[in-house]
Design brief:
By secondary structure, this protein is of the alpha+beta class. It is built from 11 helices and 10 strands. The chain has 3 domains: 113 residues, Orthogonal Bundle (Butyryl-Coa Dehydrogenase, subunit A, domain 1), CATH 1.10.540.10; 108 residues, Butyryl-CoA Dehydrogenase, subunit A, domain 2; 152 residues, Butyryl-CoA Dehydrogenase, subunit A, domain 3 (Up-down Bundle), CATH 1.20.140. Helix content is 52%, strand content 14%. The strands form 3 sheets. It has a 4-stranded mixed beta sheet. A 4-stranded antiparallel beta sheet has the order 2-3-7-6, with no helix packed on it.
């Protein structure tokens, strides 16, 4: 479909697709109903080398590019959005260390991240600080032998299942976003507490937690990046994460297209398969257009990222288009299923619940549009054109 998918990537996709459709899809409904964390499947992905797709080979990773990572996210999410979200969450934490970790931090942690033997989660969001990260209230106070962290985080994915958490805390409360610093905190640190998994509408196999820090002490080597550089780290990592979310959304939309086409081919009304009815044909074509446009945006953004270009605009557009398109595609697929799409036994019902989060996390659709609008203004002021 895409020029970016050369023979090597197609072979990669075909191998992963066979695994996902034979071993991931059959248990997805059960894991959703039980809100069961897919630990065994994460281990299998690790065995296949997929936890370190973009980690350099010198650290034990595959040394591949983000286009390949997007390909992997699509295939995993097609089979199970919960597993896809856990998978993407791994890259969210890893990317902060890959891009901003000190040489010692990269040497110590990237090999384990690449093999999946070491896991890192990403704790940015707080009860009063979502899109506006400058409002975070978690504090880090410097001492003679390190830092003491106090505060609360929420919606921290994979926190209990990780070995460490990248915690964003204020070190200079009067400096706004420039007063934020990132710290690598072991999950066994005294004073670190976790809630039970938060009950969610969808992606129930991916566990998110409230995390409390009550005087958690870390050494001076726990700082990731520079003091006051945490805001930049968060924004840069989220630029890549938005492309991953776009890929997850596209994988779910691809599954919805397959389900809708399959159902329309076997469901008979008025003496013929409903895919021969014009009303159904129009919805199927709409779903196809939504899927293809979302995928093109995601692959374009990933290709720019691989060329080390600024992906703020492309990443936000990819995340916005893919997540909104996914919701519309799943909605149309459910409509094609009629009443059978609305019952709990239907896979499309699960997709409907799963896909809603894509329009919220890693920045809501509205935040993506505001980001794009600001960048358009800057482009116009600097160049007199935005194209």
């Amino acid at each position: 479909m895409f020029d970016l998918l050369d023979d090597q990537r197609r072979e990669f996709r075909d191998t992963l697709r066979e695994f996902c459709r034979k071993e991931v899809m059959p248990g997805a409904a059960h894991r959703d109903a039980a809100a069961e964390y897919p630990a065994t499947l994460i281990a299998r992905l690790a065995d296949m080398g997929l936890m370190g797709i973009t980690v350099p080979e010198e650290y034990g990773g595959l040394g591949l590019d983000m286009v390949t990572q997007v390909l992997a996210m699509e295939e995993v999410a097609y089979a199970d959005a919960s597993l896809g979200s856990v998978f993407a969450g791994h890259y969210l934490g890893m990317e902060a260390l890959r891009q901003f970790g000190s040489p010692d931090q990269r040497e110590r942690h990237l090999p384990g991240l690449a093999t999946g033997s070491y896991r890192v989660s990403f704790a940015l969001t707080e009860p009063d600080a979502g899109s506006d990260v400058s409002r975070i209230r978690t504090r880090a106070t410097a001492g003679p032998d390190g830092w003491t962290l106090t505060g609360n985080k929420t919606f921290t994915s994979n926190a209990r299942e990780s070995d460490a958490i990248i915690v964003f805390a204020m070190t200079d409360p009067g400096a706004g976003i420039k007063g934020i610093t990132a710290f690598l905190v072991p999950t066994g640190a005294p004073g670190l507490g976790f809630s039970a998994p938060i009950e969610k509408l969808g992606i129930r196999g991916e566990h998110a937690y409230e995390v409390s820090l009550d005087g958690v002490h870390v050494g001076p080597d726990a700082m990731v990046g520079e003091s006051g550089g945490g805001g930049r780290i968060a924004l840069e990592v989220l630029n890549s994460a938005r492309i991953d979310v776009a890929a997850l959304a596209n994988g779910v939309a691809m599954r919805a297209l397959d389900l809708a086409t399959g159902y329309a081919s076997t469901r008979v009304q008025f003496g013929r398969p409903i895919r021969e009815l014009q009303a159904i044909q129009l919805m199927l074509a709409e779903i196809d257009a939504l899927v293809q446009s979302g995928r093109l945006h995601a692959y374009h953004a990933a290709a720019l990222r691989d060329r080390s270009e600024d992906v703020r605009r492309a990443g936000s557009l990819a995340k916005y288009v893919a997540s909104e398109n996914c919701f519309s595609a799943v909605d149309r697929a459910l409509q094609i299923h009629g009443g059978y799409g609305y019952v709990k036994e239907s896979e499309i019902e699960r997709l409907y619940r799963d896909c809603r989060i894509f329009r919220i996390y890693e920045g809501t659709s509205q935040i993506q549009l505001l980001t794009v609008a600001k960048l358009l203004g800057r482009l116009h002021d600097e160049h007199g054109t935005v194209v």
